[in-house]
Amino acid sequence: MNIHSYYLTSAPRKRFISYVWIASALILLLSGCAPKQSYDAALILADIAAQETPSHWKSATPAPNQKEITYRIRNRIHRGTLYLPASAPPQAGIVLIPGIVPRGKDDSRLIAFAKTLARARFAVFTPELKEFRHLQVRPEHPRVIADALLYLASRPELIPPGHLGIGTFSFSVGLGVIAALEEDARTKVQFILGVGGYYNLETTIRFFTTGYLSDNTYYPNPSEYGKLVFAATSLNYLTNSTDQMVLEEMIQIKIRNPDAEIASLAPHLGPAGKAVYTLLSNTDPEKVPGLIRTLPAELHQFIKNFSLSNKDLTQLQAQLFLIHGKNDPLIPYTESLALADALPPKQTKVYLIEQVLTHVDFNFQSLFTRAFWTEELPDLWRMYRVIYALLGKRAQTDP
């Protein structure tokens, strides 16, 4: 088992795509009339499942153009990848941010989704957040995302004014919301698509370390991935070189084998490193707030800075579409509900997925089961509605 085992599912791809395509056709029939937006949404749903493999959507639309670019925003130099529709001008723009994954913007799932949206006439931009490749979140990341928004907003030949948004996954949902709160970016963002995101970072840490939700419901097998990201991020806040080396060794051991024992290395940690280790190895939810307070001051402040629960969300102007799997083992679905509750009802819509979404990946099993009709088809209907709503954010520029 390696690091990708935390994040990826292993459903048989060809059978899976066939089922999703059949389910998409059923959804299209159930939705009544079939205008182009409805038809496109059904094709896109199946194409998202297909990722980089063939699909009806790929057959029906030309492959998008893709290029690496370097750009400057107020003397800040950034890089990213731009995906553009090949045969017609874009009708909207979207900045896509992956979860904290080793390949960053070059993750195959993000590339596939970017191309899917570019075929739907979105100008898609994926900025480089190079620290993601080391599983690290940095204080400057929301600013990089905000600059990507400003870049697209400054290019009217790429997007019609008033049709710009963000697509975010996992921990990056919080980064995207914080970016959309930046004073120079908040009026530029009309929508945010968030998949598997958080609201209160302390509550999220409590979940992926102990398995307990905010109401003390217990989740038996929380993902270890959150611990890896937190440990890797904490390296930037440890001033003792021995702490850094020992914790890095622990991280690498867990990447190679999540079940490996690392407790024997803990005695080599100093006070700051041991505070990080103790938090991540703790299983008592009642101890989490106190353990967070014992972290190095700058790391404790990092948790506050990246929480959304302490932000003035009245400044947020974007409409939010939040998708969350109820069986998410990394960030509990209650976090998306909490984020939605913090905003006016008309500004947010939450789509809770019962079965077919495992954090940020499809996990659709069989068409010929009772669960398909009672759980999986309703889930796909919810996801279809999200795609339909997202397509509605495009400018209707064609006659």
Automatic annotation (TrEMBL):
Gene3D superfamilies: alpha/beta hydrolase. It comes from the Bacteria. InterPro entries: AB_hydrolase_fold. This is Alpha/beta hydrolase. The lineage of its organism: Bacteria, Pseudomonadati, Pseudomonadota, Gammaproteobacteria, Chromatiales.
